[in-house]
Each structure stands twice: as structure tokens, then as C-alpha cells.
């Protein structure tokens, strides 16, 4: 296997022969307060910990060291077509802003180990707040702006933040979305109340502040600046948590993925050069949101750690103002590599199939397009390749791992692309395909995708204060392996193919959502007897949820009325990001004779795929009813 000039095989083999030696070498890319002498301690934590005796600070590595050596280079370029702003923030300026906001947090009583929730739109202040936490050893937990108050409240109750940092509004294309009512609603719902909130007032909306609890960002920053206080980076254990990021689990209760400081920096620094092939001084753009793992790793931490300029884009691929928006940003800022979700390209392709807007721009700096977050369908990959004339690299990873599990390491010399496959495992990941009993299956046979333990640096050591749930969720099903909950196969060249999740998670426009969580919301409606939510194929978003509900006997509302209420309920309880627009009342749900809901068959019917009558079905007529009703409603 391997492209003619790719160093991949040698590098992967070197890791496999001596994992500790490999990562000890990569750790040299980081400035340590005390360099680690232990690379991996198998006795520490749930399954071992990386760099256990190392002392370091992520903010120092991402900001301060570059402020000293490349002060005038842009660290962040904030490009916001929705506000008409382009702002260049140099490493020196970023250090000043971050250190000042660190003082603000300290003034509010935040110290090492305290949690700070960041509920922000895509503005530089979101990254500044994250880095300020990193500077003083506070643990940030960024919550995506598209989540509703109840979701935010669940996260508040899980991590008990001392302070919440938010903004008066987010801007979603043409819509201005006030954040403060959502924040106030969440704090009302939560049992754990923050001591203080810092609100960035944006010109579009002036949020009202709760006296004694809420503070104006600008006022606090001005005060800290006047006092000239800029705390230094606090020395932290490599194993201290940098952040907690909640992601959908198989219930309504999200999982708090913990990220450490040392291993995270080492893994991300390796990935920037070797996987993405981008060098210090160049420009990298991850068109995602700081609320997702892609935003954490590749808008904020990885590029900055490597001295690379990062684009922070507050806009959409289409409509802000047109489907040429991405080309404009790449051209204007000299972007070397773009990382986004396939859904963004499907959106562009839908509006501008002939890529006429691309003709308006020259993209000489642009070398590679990276896609992740959901399946990269070959149509989209080939279209992007054709119009851009650069390699389109699919890669596969998860919030849990924090960086790529399987990809095509452009920095080591690109391997041949096979559309439909994210290519090969990165060093650190020993990926296997197993059957239900945990036995490895031969090439091309489908199975569960697992990773031999231990996980590499950068991957989660545990879930926030839930070692047992971590073990139960990821390590118990296949002892000795991390279960990814994805299914797939490896071909004869060692290329991996991801075929879908084995649990109830669906991917809606690259956003990870739990259908189980949506079912919990639907079941809470007083008129609903039972329900099932499935992910239905969608040409733009990849998948969208579709809920089937059975109403309680004696409900005397019209079904359409209840359906409307259910759509509104999911939006209210989970958020608009769930894109739950289709609730369908049916007389009963298709079940096996033992009572298991036949979600798989319902999904096939909804997708218009071939399906066969399950032998174990209790009541065959209901599938015909579902097929009929879907014909009218899709
Ligand atoms: N704050 C508040 N609301 C938000 C939000 C935020 N940060 N992000 C999304 N929403 C809302 C949207 O406005 C939309 O609301 P609506 O139902 O009133 O229209 C809803 O949540 C669904 O959002 P989204 O799934 O993003 O759909 P969309 O139709 O607005 O846009 C795309 C579709 C493809 C253009 C968009 O998903 C996109 O740009 N994706 C690119 C890549 C990406 O972000 N990937 C994520 C992980 S890498
Ligand atoms: P998230 O944690 O939000 O990054 O979602 C992770 C899940 O998204 C994975 O478990 C996969 O199901 C899916 N996913 C991510 N990247 C890819 C990819 N390149 N191809 C197919 N599925 C992907």
C-alpha cells in the first residue's frame, strides 16, 4: 500500500514498533515547563494517561510563544459576511486580549479547575474566552449556539460552571438570534447556578443584564486593562483537563468528553503538519463552529499551536451573500487548506451546480480540501475535485478522539484517493473490524470498527466525572478495544470504509444528534403513546430526523395539530439544530413479535431503499401504511 512518494507506511510502522518513542519524539514540538519523562503510564486513569509527569500550558504554546517570535503575523482572521467585518488579530494582539480576559475571569473568582461555559456565536471573543481559560487552568465547556435552553441547562447541571460567557445574539445567515433569553431560560431550569455571566453586547441586539449576576464584557475588559493586570500562563499537569465538550450519546443526556492539555497539544501539533500538510505562517480554514469538536481542534487550538493563521468565519456556504462565499474567503486570505463538512459542498453544489461563482476568484494559494463529520458521498467529492482542481481528502474522526482516526496524510505525501473511503489509520490508532463476538473479520467483511487500546494522545481519557459511564459506553463491549459505534470494512489495500453508526446517533448537516434524545422529547408530549425517530436520507443535510408517533386513545385533537406541536417541542427542547421538521402520526409502530421497534426497516422505507418484510414482524400491514403515508409527506 502507499503512494509512490508517501512516507506514510514508514511513519505508521515506526509508531507501531515503538508507540512511546514515537510520541516522545512528537512531544518535542511543544514548549514544556517541565518536559515529561514518562510518555505513557498504563496504570494512571481509566486506561492509562499520556505524559503524566509533564508540566505545560496550552495558552503559552498557542499564543505566547508565537507572540514572542511572530508577533505581527495574523493569529486569527475574523471574517464575518453577516456583519460586514474582516478583522485581523495578530499573535501579539491575541496575547494581549487573552491575558486581559484571563484577568477578568480571575476577578470573577475563577481559578484552576473551575469550569466556564462559553455559549457564543462565531466571534473572536469565543476563542479569546477559551484561550483565557486555558491560560489560568480553568476548564472551558463550549456549548453550540443552536442548542435550546434545556440542552444548555443539562450541560450547566453536569459541569457546574462558576461563570458563563455569552453574547447578546448570534447571526445565522439573515436571522439575528437573541442568545440572552436562551441563557436566562437555561439558568432558570438548571439546579447549578453560575456565580456570574459575562455578556458580549453586539450592535444588533442589546441584551438586558441581571443586576449582580451579569456583566458587560467590554466594561470588565476595560477595567482589567486599566488595572494593567495580565496573568501569566499557569503551569498545569499535562493530564489536567483543558476542556469538556458535550456530545450526543444514546440518551437525552449528553456525554462530557474530557480533553487534557499535554496529549492534546502533541497530537494536534503532529496533525497540522503531517496530516493537513500546512506550515507555520500559512493560513488554515476550518469552516465549522467553535461549538463543535472541529472548531475546538481546528479553528482554535491546532493552527495556533503550530503558528498558523486561522480563519474564524461567521457565515454560511450559501446565502452570505451567495454560493461563492467560500471561494471569496479562500482568495481574500490566501487559504492553503479548507476543512469543512460535505453538507457545505452539497449546499454550494445545489445552488451553483456549474460553479459559476468560482470563476470570479483566483485561488493560487489553495492546495487541499478536507472533509469530515459525516459520510463524504462520492458525488460530492468528485464534484469538488473537478471544480477546484485540488485533492479532496475525506477523513474520519469523532468528538471523542479530538483528531483524525483514519485519513490521508497529505503532509507525509498523499496516498491515492479512493472516493468513499477516508483512507488509512493515523499513527496512534490500531483500527480493527470485529464481529459481534469481538473476533476480527476478513478484508471486505462488514463489522464494528474498534481501536485497540490505548487510545493515542489527544483522545478522551474519560467522561467528565463519569469514569464508569466512560468504561460502559466505550470499553466494555469489546474488552481491550475502544468501540467507535461506527460500522464498516477495510478493503484489500487497507483502506477503511465507514458505513454508518451502530447506535441511534444520526448526522444532520454534519451535526451529531441522538434520535433517542428526540424520542424522549416526543414521549413527553401528553398526547403521545409511543414513538420512534429515525434518520432519513436527505440530499442536502445527509440525514434529517423523522418521527413516527402513535397518539393515546381518546385524544380528540387533529393529528396535524399534534404533529405541529411536536415539531415545535423538539425545537424548543433540543434546538433548531435538530432540524426536526417531520412528525407523522401512525396507527401503530411496526414491531417484532418480541416488541422491538423495527427502526431499520422504517429507515429503508423512508429512504426509498429496497426493503423486505422482516420474518419476525408482528403486524405486516403497518409497513404498507408507513410507506403510503411517507409518499405524501416526504
Ligand atoms: N445558533 C442558532 N441557531 C443555529 C445555529 C447557531 N449557531 N446554527 C444553526 N442554527 C439553526 C439554523 O438557523 C437553522 O434554523 P431554522 O430551522 O430556523 O432554519 C437550524 O439551526 C438548522 O441549521 P443547519 O443544520 O446549519 O441548517 P441550515 O439550513 O441553516 O444550513 C448548511 C445548512 C448546509 C448551509 C449548514 O449546515 C452549513 O453551513 N454546514 C457547514 C458545515 C458545518 O457547520 N459543519 C458542522 C460540523 S464540521
Ligand atoms: P462527531 O463526534 O460530531 O464528530 O461525529 C462523529 C461521527 O460522525 C462518527 O462516529 C461518524 O459516524 C461520523 N463521521 C465523521 N467523519 C466521518 C467521515 N469522514 N465519514 C463517515 N462518517 C463520518
Describe this structure in words.
With 634 residues, the chain is α/β, with parallel strands linked by helices. It has two domains: 8-315 and 395-488, Rossmann fold (3-Layer(aba) Sandwich), CATH 3.40.50.12780; 509-633, ANL, C-terminal domain (GMP Synthetase, Chain A, domain 3). 32% of the residues lie in helices and 23% in strands. The strands form ten sheets. It has a seven-stranded mixed beta sheet, with helices on both faces. A hairpin with a 4-residue loop joins β4 (74-80) and β5. α3 (58-69) runs antiparallel to α4 (91-107), α3 (58-69) crosses α5 (124-136) and α4 (91-107) packs across α8 (217-226). The longest helix is centred in the first third of the chain and has 17 residues, at 91-107. The chain is globular, with a radius of gyration of 24 Å. The site of adenosine monophosphate has 20 residues, from β25 and β26. This is Propionyl-CoA synthetase.
Keywords:
single chain, 634 residues, Rossmann fold, seven-stranded mixed sheet, 18 helices, globular, binds coenzyme A, binds adenosine monophosphate, Propionyl-CoA synthetase, propionate-CoA ligase activity
Explain the layout of strands and helices.
Layout lengths: L7 H10 L1 H8 L13 E2 L7 E2 L4 E2 L1 H12 L4 E7 L4 E6 H17 L7 E5 L4 H13 L2 E4 L6 H11 L3 E5 L1 E4 L2 E4 L1 H10 L6 E5 L13 E3 H10 L9 E2 L3 E7 L7 E6 L1 H13 L8 E4 L6 H13 L3 E5 L11 H9 L3 E4 L1 H10 L16 E4 L6 H11 L3 E3 L11 E2 L16 E2 L5 E4 L12 E6 L14 H9 L5 E10 L5 E6 L3 E4 L2 E4 H9 L4 E11 L3 E10 L7 H15 L9 E3 L13 H9 L13 H13 L1
Parallel strand pairs: 4-17, 6-7, 6-8, 8-11, 11-12, 16-17, 16-18, 18-19, 19-20, 30-31
Antiparallel strand pairs: 1-2, 3-13, 4-5, 9-10, 14-15, 21-22, 23-24, 24-25, 25-26, 27-28, 29-30
Helix pairs in contact: 1-2, 3-4, 3-5, 3-10, 4-5, 4-8, 6-7, 9-10, 12-13, 17-18
Bound molecules: coenzyme A (COA) and adenosine monophosphate (AMP).
The site of adenosine monophosphate has 20 residues, from strand 25 and strand 26.
